[in-house]
């Protein structure tokens, strides 16, 4: 869903967004991602405020199982024309305005905005459960479901060098 910035009227725009994010877009949703957004334009600066809800497909970084997580977030964002950055050589994003983005060609892609915000709200490493035991490094068994007979040591990589030295 794209909007033309110069067409946002004085009184602003209330947008009901509902789109399914597909697998090939970095983030896949189960069912549609919905958002209620208030969009206002101040000069060529666009302010987006509202709520985003969605059920996102994730893969556990320990046991590789696929799972879903419901995300709800509120956003308060500012978008500036990208040409502004090119013009002012020493453009600096003010420290307190972290949620700042850029648009180009008078066009703002709301799908992109929503996707970015969801991605930013995800943890670096998704876990199906904080207590997830992961996979056995030897046989690959899911240790949440079974206990295998494999013997392995988990060695602190910092101690590995020392151990090699001692075994010489
Ligand atoms: Zn897991
Ligand atoms: Zn094993």
Structure description:
This protein is α+β, with helices and mostly antiparallel strands. The protein folds into two domains: 131 residues, no CATH class; 36 residues, no CATH class. The protein is 17% helix and 36% strand. The protein has three helices and eight strands. The strands form two sheets. Strands 2, 3, 4, 5, 6 and 7 form a six-stranded mixed beta sheet that branches. It has a two-stranded antiparallel sheet with strand order 1-8. Helix 1 links the parallel strand 6 and strand 7. The longest helix has 12 residues. It is elongated, with a radius of gyration of 23 Å. The structure holds zinc ion (ZN) (2 copies). The site of one zinc ion (ZN) has 6 residues, from loops.
Strand-residue proportion: 35-45%
> What is the share of helical residues?
10-25%
Overall mean pLDDT stands at 87
Globally, the shape reads elongated
- Per DSSP, the total helix count is 3
Q: The biggest beta sheet, please?
A: 6 strands, mixed
Q: Segments where pLDDT lies below 50 for 5+ residues?
A: none
| Structural class by sheet pairing and helices | alpha+beta
H/E topology pattern: EEEEEEHEEHH
Number of domains: 2
The tally of beta strands, per DSSP, is 8
Ligand types? zinc ion
Distance between the termini: 64 Å
